[in-house]
Amino acid sequence: MIRIPPKGSPDRDRLIEEHKACIESMKGVAGCSILRCATPGDTTEISGGIHEDFQLNRVLLRMRAQPAKGKLVVVCTKIEKEWRIARCSGIRGVPPEFVSDKVYDNEQDPQHDIFLMRLDEFPETDGFPEHFHQGWKRRDDNWAAS
Amino acid sequence: MAWMRLTGYADKFGVHPGDTIRFYVNCDGPKSYDAQLVKMINGDTNPRGPGLIERKRRASLNGSYKGRRQVIHSGSYGCVEDNSQLRVQSFTLQCWVWPTTPKTHPKYWKHGAQGLVTKWHRNRGYGLFINEDGCAELRINGKKVTTGAPLRDHAWHFLAATYNAETGQAILYHEPQVVYALDPVIRPAKEKIAGPVRHDGSPAVIAGYTGAHSDDPTAQSSVPAGIIINGHYNGKIDGPRICNRALSREEIETMKLGAQRGMTERRNSGPTGALSETIVAAWDFSDGINTIVGKDHGPYLLDAQIVNCPTRAMTGHNFSGNNFDWKHAPQEYGAIHFHDDDVDDARWEVDFEWTVPANYESDSYCVKLTTDEGDEDYIPFFVVPRPGEEQAKIAVMMPTISYMAYANEHLANNAGGAELLVYRVPIMQHQNMFLAEHREYGGSIYDTHTDGSGLCLSSRLRPILSIRPQYDHFLMQAPWQYPADLHLIYWLNQLGYKYDVITDEDVNYDGLARLENYNVVITGSHPEHNSGPQLDAIHDYTQRGGRFMYMGADGFYWIHSYHPAYDHLGRGIVTEMRRCESGIRTWRADPGEYYHQSTGELGGMWRYRGRYLHSVAGTGMSSEGFDISSYYSRTPESNDPRVSWAYEGIGYDEKIGNFGLVGGGAAGTELDIVDTLLGSPPHTLITATSAGRHTEGYLLVMEDFGFNQQGLDGTQHPRVRSDIAYHETPNGGGCFAFSSIAFCGSLPWNNGDPEKNNISRLVKNVLDRFSQDGPLPPPPRSAIKHRGRADYDPPLNKKRK
Hints:
The complex is a heterodimer of chains A (146) and B (801). Chain A is of the alpha+beta class.
């Protein structure tokens, strides 16, 4: 198991810095990965990010694997102009709800803010044995599967 | 927040000149809306591309229309109109059930009691229910009897209820099929209830109950019109029966056998003559599996109309595990799985129609709907020439079955795993937000139903909000399917090609006739879902000298069939697919449920029916990933004179397609490769490849490996790549496979200028050669030689042998 680095730790600062750099370099790409484009907005040469920072890779996997209930998503509110962050209900028929009034002017920045929010929301030991709960008996564990 | 107040659909995907296409619109709020015919050229709003391009067309449909609200009454059920036999006083109701959501969350979109076998409406009538607490419940008028024992989900239970009007005795039986060691005993619940049973004109309903009789115009799209069905049940029902007196438990046991009429000493051994006289209805859902009729084998032939196309060919309570094909053991397939979000037809009123003028130009069109208040929606369709009336030498085959498979897909909202798949946080569009709330619009074949079971049927008679321009899909933050195929339409227009548009439907129903008069047929970016007749037609075409340009990847993957019960409404109304033993599956069919209810054919991947994907156009799917795309390099085989013409104007060392509007490169999302052991013809040339350039987000498909192991991602595995491949077919034909779904997303780059876009150059070279009249120039004589599949074994393997 890989710990979510706690607030103030050098590891956490490093992950945030690398994630931010990747997101900045992905602006303009019709897609996104936590990797650095050698030329911003151009995926011809990529490096860093999840390919080279093992801890960032594993922490992101943990965050991405959460079940739908309470999961953060991005919602495009004006085509090519505005995006906001929302949270899924996990209940069929109940749409995601916005978490704040913050409006983004590009589709990549909310990815980074969601990373920061999750760093704050996730306990350091997320997914460790002490997190076992009864839901694990029935696909309601903390690792989503298709 | 109202995400979409305007939605609509047409009665056809493709319409012939001279024929009429009808449009159905929901305008929920604004008093009026405008309709305008447009030619839809490009639907991608990405600022790095050419942007939305639509061209207004004059048409009689253009104008202002009065807005009205139209709603979809989703949820499947069986229904028999009121009649005197159903108006019983004493009765017995019984059925097997396999409930999937006996108890729902209070915020669940259809939270509340679920009807099983009912003739009940507002405290009148009778019925067997699952109540809000998940327990079996008998209702007689306004009185309720329950055992208080919750039904275990995903388990077979036998339920029965009797009522003796003379004594007032009501009994409810709940008998789980499997009883675990620590399960409490469930005793029959008994109560005295005074009669009489009061009746109204409500129908008998299986898997729901009558919620309201309504004069509201929106109730007209319900079945029966004006009667709203509520309490949709999620799960399987097998062998529902209604008898007209209170049977003993022993008689109920015999009645499980159902009606067996015409009993003699030599045939049938069901209920005795005396017991048979009590039967009002004994439905047998194993009869007519490929229909939308629930056959009643009882004396009154009270066949149920099955509404909203629930899933049939489902294993019943008596499935033995010995037969897996319902055609060979129908008696084990007596269950229908009903879902509260099934929808087969929105059944809206027509708002306007358009008779396409004779000789009208074949192309991609939309009716654009707008209001003064800023609402907007588009209804796409295609004008398709009749066979023999072709308008061009080039045909674009729009993958409409694939559009239906992805119709109104909910993964970003439903599936926690979606983020792992795309390797970033999904982005939802207003269509997704609308659908997240409006489950009645139904889902895609990628979704699970609201009860979590696999969704294997999709109708096109409903607004399909994923088939829209300006719609970016969460998989790529970019267009997918229909709007992605518009990249190709834009490019063809930009370079001045004259083309016809045809659809999967046309080829499925008319076969080779739809293809043989074209010099070249071009696919969409992701023709993943195909019927057998369509693949046969493509095969016939390429073998007879036709030229085929496979513009994408993950094509020819899943087996589809159109449901014959909807043929009276048009072609290709409902398509079916089952996710069987392997393949990329967002859900997995249960044991014994691999065969289609529509045609009885085995579902799943074409690969497992011996029709390798690679055999259709030369390449087949090997991997997928959805974060970012990459580019191609030429291989030495691109210099082979058999194919070097395709690369004229492209330097050997050029990076090919390191740009684009889907993932930022031409090689991305889902990728195909050449594999001569999986059907690629042995003379296939790999002209370019993206090998070694993909991210960790790309993974080998599961059908290509037998056990889980490390090293399957794009940074490691050699099969995670896209191969641009070419091979000749007999009689001067040929196939070019571009092998990446992102590929078409590079065509509009730099406005498609072949001087500034080597993807455009490559496709132009191929299309110019493929679209010429007569057979393709023959390959050099030296290319005619015997080729074994083993010729492609790496040298190391040969050494070992």
